[in-house]
């Protein structure tokens, strides 16, 4: 999505040469992107979601890309509840006693 470059007086700057002569110059600092659902038309989405808020915006079709977002966590993540606290405590006690035994063997 592009927006026009303006001068210090707020006037839109226009291209003076080439195939874009007379068209507004894009302002790179105001450039933005939108993620459009694949089921929507880009133009319909632009008219419905962007133009009511930014009426001077336009689409640069040379920068339009089609891609997919696959949120793996949303589709493939299966929640596994944590182990019960008693089980974790017993594992820690067993490991602690094993470490103490090893330390006693080293000091003997």
Q: What labels would you give this structure?
A:
108 residues, 34% helix, mainly alpha
Number of strand segments: 0
Distinct helical segment count? 3
First-residue to last-residue Cα separation? 75 Å
**What is the structural class?**
mainly alpha
Principal-axis shape equals elongated
Strand content: under 5%
Poorly predicted tracts of residues: none
The largest sheet is: none
Biased composition (Basic and acidic residues): 1-34
Protein name: DNA methylase adenine-specific domain-containing protein
Region (Disordered): 1-38
Report on the architecture of this protein.
The protein is an all-alpha fold. The protein has a domain at 28-79. It is 34% helix and 0% strand. The protein has 3 helices and no strands. The longest helix has 23 residues, at 85-107. The chain is elongated. The protein starts with 41 loop residues before the first helix and ends with a helix. The relative contact order is 0.12. The mean pLDDT is 92.
């Amino acid at each position: 999505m592009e927006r026009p470059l303006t001068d210090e007086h707020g006037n839109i700057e226009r291209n003076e040469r080439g195939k874009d002569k007379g068209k507004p110059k894009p302002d790179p600092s105001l450039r933005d992107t939108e993620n459009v659902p694949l089921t929507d038309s880009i133009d319909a989405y632009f008219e419905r979601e962007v133009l009511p808020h930014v009426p001077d915006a336009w689409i640069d079709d040379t920068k339009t890309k089609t891609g997919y977002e696959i949120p793996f966590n949303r589709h493939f993540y299966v929640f596994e509840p944590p182990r019960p606290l008693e089980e974790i405590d017993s594992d820690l006690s067993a490991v602690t006693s094993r470490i103490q035994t090893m330390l006693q063997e080293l000091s003997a």
